[in-house]
Amino acid sequence: MPELVRPFAALRPAPDQADAVAAPPYDVLNTEEARVRADGRPNSFLHISKPEIDLPPGTDVYSQEVYDKGAENLRRLIDDGVLMREDKPCYYAYRLTMGNHTQTGVAMAASASAYDANDIRKHEFTRPKKEDDRVNQITALNAQTGPVLLAYKSSAAVKAVLDAVTVSAPTYDVIADDGVGHAIWVISDDAQIAALTEAFNSMPALYIADGHHRSAAGSRVAKTKPDVENAQYFLTVAYADDEMRILDYNRVIKDLNDHSAADLLAKIGERFDVTRTDGEAKPSKPTQFGMYLDGAWYQLDLHSEHVPQDDPVGRLDVSLLHANLIEPLLGIADPRTDERIDFVGGIRGLGELEKRVNSGEMAVGFALFATSMADLMAVADVGEVMPPKSTWFEPKLADGLLSHVLD
Fold first, then answer.
1. pLDDT-derived band at 279, boundaries 50, 70, 90
2. Which domains are delineated in the chain?
3. Are 236 and 107 in contact (CB under 8 A)?
4. What radius of gyration, in Å, describes the C-alpha atoms of the chain?
5. Angle separating helix axes 212-224 and 128-141, nearest 10 degrees
């Protein structure tokens, strides 16, 4: 059977340093936010993932100087004993807790060859500049420090190992600044390692949930180091599909494309049932949308004849809203490039849509029902890609708790 994953010897914090090291993912903070977050925290992993914070303001974040600074900072943490290298390849149980939601996954090294063969499946396009950035960062650090979030179809064999491992106290139990809990157990038992290796490598596929650029960069780096075994793998954490949580990813539009509010409502009514609501119109099922327009919320239910059930991309709510309203009525053909549209993660709530419309910054907001894991996997299985901003995963993995060294 093809190899999808294997254990790895993680570079990880000394037990008393985990709280000091753990940091948000590199791409959820801008430079100034990272600078504030890392102030007074010399061992924060932000000094590696956002090293421009240690250089003069205005430094180009894609300059070699930035990548070199990250490598210097990583060496410092290793030399100071803040980070240590595992003495054997292991798996790592990684539990995320956010409010009442808990999910427990496995950190592992995933095969770049499996990614290239589409056994680790994608659902998004990548952008060359962002890929190049990750390649340069990995090369400078000689390590992958930002884990890719993977999904797998729920497995009793994997669950049995995780249940056995997590009855003991975790190696790390970190509560991040945002209140999300990050608990990690080292899985060093040979029998448990063998059981996880067999369980994952017998799966037909794994699925990228978040981290398409990191995955693509891992594949590219592997090709530049064909004789370096560890470089043929990239850092991942995989969760069962029935434990993962996708939030809605909503839309706001700057203008009504020369329509009046009344005219837009009338035209929307040709394809949707339109109902004004007393409060927030949060969708409760697929093909139902909320719209905030001119100070009021409306529930929009798409007529069933406009839902292509046999098209895994076309039947996504993000596709249906675009094809039946945003493009034909609001004139936005390409949401990747049109500056009239913006996207609001569901973690911010529908109040954020109201706020941006009420401020006059935007003219209309749309709330969507969250994409399902089943839909994500169906798109990936047929080799298609989703529209941009289709999924918002919460909670998110931390940087710094587990890194994959390439030598």
1. very high
2. 5-245+394-405 (no CATH), 249-369 (3.30.1760)
3. yes
4. 22
5. 60
